[in-house]
Amino acid sequence: MTGQGSCLVSGIVATTGAGGLRSDPEGSARQRRPAWATPVNLAIAGITVLALAIRVYYQYTRPGFLLSVTEYDDGPYFGSAIRLVHGSLPYRDFVLVQPPGITLLMSPLGLLSKLTGTASAMAAARVLTAVASTAGVAVVGLLVRHRGLLTVVIACGISAVYPDTVAAAHTVLVEPWLALFCLLGALAVFDGDRLTASTRRLAWGGVAFGFGGAVEAWAIVPVLVVLVLCLPQIRRAVTFAAGVAAGFLIPVLPFALIAPAKFYQSLITAQIGARAHAIRIPLFTRLDHMAGVFDLNLPDAALLLVTLAIVAFVVLAYTVSWHRTSQPPARLDWFAAATAALTAALFLWPPQFHYHFAAFLAPFLALTVALAAGRLLAAAQEGSPSAAGRMGRWSAGAAVAVLAVMTVIQFHAETIVPTVLGPVPAAIDRIIPPGACVLTDQVSVTINANRFVSASPGCPQLVDTLGTDLALSHGLTPDTGAGRVPAVAAVWAAAFSHAQYLLLTHDYSRRIALSRSLRAYVRTHFRRVYVSPKGLTLYVREG
What we know:
Radius of gyration: 27 Å
Mean pLDDT: 90
Shape: elongated
């Protein structure tokens, strides 16, 4: 081209400047910046930093929160690692209602506790879990970066600000780790939109998914979806399944072989077995968490509309794009949508539901919505190359604006301090000497008090009091008659007979199956010496 004019090359306008030389400011800027600094990569990095900031803000802006007693579940998970490094084996020596993956992941920090004390090691484990949750945001971005800026912003943005993902990252819970290993498996298994042609990547992806199953059994959902996508190529399905088997069995099988009966009681009877008189969590409570709008406090009707709108958008986006482009959804799209749908159905089925369950759904829901939006945008740009760049920039800008609003809402929600036990009172540290045998209904209290490890022979190795009741009574709790089961009664009788101190929360009766004889034993052998403002009660053995 000669003279004044312009041409369109790959959607970029180049103009001819004075002296006949072409002036392309955007192209010059691209030449000056590093090759990795593309808008997509910068978006992944920026939103990942935002995700870390949100999670750090959650932990550090609440007085004493990092060293506080904030959960029940983090005590068994981290406590099992401490027990392991001191020579006690999960399932054989104590009940653990999850596979041993979280115990193995936390074991290095369990070793650290020998130097720093259990409270500081627990704080380090909480920080590491927040980092794992943040890493999941980056992996989500890497999974979809080939689909463009809009898809990356939506996928990473939802993963970063999803309320229950943030909340689950504040302490040692299994969902952030489970999601991370499943996402790493997906990153290995998928090459862009397709399953990888590399046998090695397929096998290592299976290993990552398998270890995810060693953390929490819900990994079976994406594993089954990938296996179906491998068909009809049986050899590839077998390669992936072999990786899954190795990733799961290598960490799990040694513990199962050492104590098979107790392994079954812990994982099957206590965790997924039937529970007598179980109270079903309401549907709208589940939808509130699963839709990711918990911080908005929506009424039930609005919540139902939001849930239906998410489903309708995904279905409509794929229907329209398929019709317009004549291209069916890619395998990555099917993986995300099927995993999200099956996981949601799984969470709606049993009576039990907890907020941190939704942290596993979050990345797959984010991928589903983002991939659908990106596909819809691509279909809208079909046949209109001149408007493609402008439409993409406007869509990405709108997604960033929505992300900014949701970030503000999330930060505001984090200013509300939840009702927790909080820091362990200094009086506990003064009264209980190091190395004493302390029995508690919630071991996160003794971990944060640096009184979890005992030098007293015969001190009970319990890490999950409620799980112990469920495992030994075939699904009964103290409220439904666990104390009448001889195996449960024997465990608690032995525990009380060896304890030098009792450190009980206000919920102890829901976790410790106290029979009439045990109550009489406590009255005659223990004396109450301290009650904290948050309901912690300390007893010392008489004599």
